[in-house]
Fold these 2 entries.
Entry 1:
Amino acid sequence: MEEGYAAEVMTTVPKLRSRERYDRLKARMGIDRMGHRVRPGLYALGIPERTSPVLVTANYSLSFNALRSSLPGRNAWILVLDTKGINVWCAAGKGTFGTDELVKAVQATDLASKVDGRTLTLPQLAAPGVSAHEVRKGCGFRVDYGPVRAEDLPTYLDTGECTEEMRTVRFNLKDRFVLAPVEMCNYRWWMLLMLLAALFVPYYGPLVLALTLGGIFLFPAMLPFIPGKDLSLKGMVLGALLVTPFALYQLLEWNGWYVITAVLAEYLLLIAWLGYLGLNFTGSTTFTSRTGVRREIFAYIPWMAGMASLGGILSAVTLVLYMGWL
Amino acid sequence: MDIGMLELQPPEKGRAMNTLVFRPGRCTNCGMCLKVCPHRVFAPGDGRVRLALADKCMECGACQRNCPSEAIAVDSGVGCAAAMIMAALRGKDEVVCGEDCCR
């Protein structure tokens, strides 16, 4: 794909083709994470006039596609910034969806000669990177922040107003669950290691794999219902809950005293591991602050390290008891 | 806690969950913070906005960047443990989503 802003106006339609839906599926699976891009520049959606609204988005294909597919039957200009294939909110946090890039895009596409209006409608989540008053100084265009979600854009364009709901970031079940496949991809080397362990280490291998999958899928799904305020603590609670049936089974089977150390080791190791998965989920949520996460790291990592170490020692003791080396 | 070469600094004790500071005296009631905050931290008030849900602030920095009268200050950043741990391990200041992290 060509780099930089296209000099000419490109055209687009609201309807997504099967190729674009396949691209979205791949993005949701965490495949080729930096490769979901569209060419930055000015697009004509439908047949826009000089007075049609100018909507700004990132050049992550899911952002661009969410925007255009939410506007069936409408005519608008879409200005796509070069955010290096990163979505609006993350790019705004990094500053690539920022004041300078926006001013650059307006100038590179010669927007002022193509439209009569001097208003740019940005997604609300671009605001961490864009300073509205500085954009006005930089290129003469007024920045207007639209709703958080593209699906609310038609209402906003018709009424010119956002409800509180439209201005608030959510994190509902669908938002959370859609993260699980990407999480699995992020832990792909761990997953491979655990898959091997599951094949070759009887009982414990499958247990660790099952608990990790439980952490990746159940943690986001059950997030609001797991006790605890901090995500690390929620992960630990989920770990303890998930280990319990396995521990009870082992205790009831009772094959010797080593079962006690084995069960303790399982609790310690898996509580620490799911706590760590919970801690790492902070970046996927829509509400954690840097200060809060920093506090959480310092509050929980020592506990996790301690539990993992003790769990490791108890595993070794279990092995010694089981093998009858004493 | 000292973790050697790692850059990660613990937060100061006894402070809130975020670094948001609002100086009502400077507020001109333009309403930009009401628009950009994704967690409804600010609310309309009498002649100026008021801090309604300070604990909900996630330090995204949108309000600070869009406040024309510098009435809001926040040490903005991304609340992602993976990014912080990765940055600490690599000795970098901060990594964010994209080519440096979560690939």
Entry 2:
Amino acid sequence: MTDTSKAYSAAAEVGQIRERRSRWKIMKIELKKAPYSAWFGLIVIACYCFVAIFAPLLAPHGEAEIFKIPFAPWGGEHVFGTDQIGRDIFSRLIYGARNTMGIALATTLTSFAIGGGLGLAAAITGGWTDQLLSRCVDVLMAIPGLIFALMLLTIFGSSILSLIMIIAVLDSTRVFRLTRSVAISVVVMEYVEAAKLRGEKLPWIMRREILPNIMPPLVAEFGLRFSFVFLTIAALSFLGLGIQPPTADWGSMVRDNASMIQFAKYDLTAAMTPMIPAGAIALLTVAVNFVVDWFLHKTSGLNDEH
Amino acid sequence: MHPILGTIIQRLLLGLITLFFVSLIIFSAVEFLPGDFTQAILGQAATEETVAAFRLELGLDKPAYIRYFDWVGSLLQGDLGTSFSGRNSSGADRSRDVVDLIAPRLWNTLFLAGMAAIIAVPLALALGITAALYRNSVYDRTVNALTLTTISFPEFFLAYVLILFFASLWPVFPSLANVNADTSLAERIYKCVLPALTLTLVIVAHMMRMTRAALINLLASPYIEMSQLKGLSKAKVILRHALPNAWAPIATVIAFNLAYLVVGVVVVEVVFVYPGIGQLMVDAVTTRDIPVVQACALIFATTYIVLNLIADIIGIITNPRLLHPR
């Protein structure tokens, strides 16, 4: 009796090895091997997300609450002082994380929905649809993005919805190109042919046959596009054409408090006030770039060491 | 005909076609304006006659395609139309020609961009080549890490960091670049140091990284290994054997980044209150002054297209395989 349970069984051992690692376990193993820069990036991104999600709980004051003293110094009731009309900088920084990141995320998702969808459709259908879409994208990409965005903002005015749509459409051109070029090598595979012959519709082929096979470059691109969109929105807000007051946003906070830099000699903390939101933008983009770098190395085995 | 000439002509035609479509897009900006925009410009108190006269001046009674050809025709004669601002409801017209607004500012912008390019291009090439030469050394790693960080920074962050250190804490350079037509060349250069430095930092990073990547890519090819096995020095391998083949990608990178200057200049001009075309465009967008926005967009887009075209052509003519077809 006891013999059989303890006896060596090849099938049992193979079975044990065959037990598939769950996604969670694979992620844990990969994270252990990740370089410090990637860890740094991941931690920074996690912190930003935490702040963005729990903004109302973390912020000591309201987003647009106005206090009596404008340009209050650091310390005391206002950790980072107040801005030119007496709003608490610290609270606005926290809400800014939510607004700026939320809008950038919405824009990137929209741009991937448009660019990715059209790119896949162009790769699968081919022929004149592909030609037409590709040439349209060529023309759109011939105009520098920021300039095009400025022109469209003149026409449609700068509301949050038009901001998201304009930047998403302009940015989707790059997503389109990438999706199309990676999908086109997958489209010729036998299993896609089989699905077509089986009579599957276009959405099925896009979602079930091709998308899973082109995921890694798209995920990396998502990170890059996000940081690019984030910078564009910050630049537009900085120019006073993006997110409009009283909504807190890092780009416009830099612009509003920029004059304080002049006083650096007398009060360094005051000069740092506009630097904090600018630094917050820079830190997030650096973090995203670090993570994307690591992810690209992982998925493509890409390295330039010879 | 030399086959290379054919390719170049083809590229030029392609560029012209792109330019045509871009002008079409920019022109159609007016079409998307809400119907009552004439009222918005002239004010609520505008009389029917004033509005009608204004609409007639814009040619809104004619079909769109005729207006497009009118617009292109006057563009080619150097007439960019008149600005929307400076008009009022009584019909008095103090608006200025867009050309007069743009011409002095365009020169300022070109000056700033040129200054940045003169510093940035040699610096980026030197950094890129040395980084490829001593790759994986401490030097290479430091330069790489530094450039990766400056790439990720928004332009205005770099600009304010420079202002903080060089204009506020240690005031050696002015933080405002308020030049005008009477400013002497030396003073102009002095005032443009910080804006030009900001632009340089932004584009050097890209150019250096891509120069390095292009060179390292080549270093993997067999003929380089051959020259190494011959016993040539590292510097000779890179300068004599790798670099001539890397010119095409490097030229592309340089042109691409000069084109990027076109966009970067907008933010930098606003930070330093530099009277350039970028700032003019931002102001025009705020006041929804369509003719000025259109003219600026057209100038920016044309520069961008032309620079990319030049990069393409340099890429073609420096490729020895195309120069000596079999």
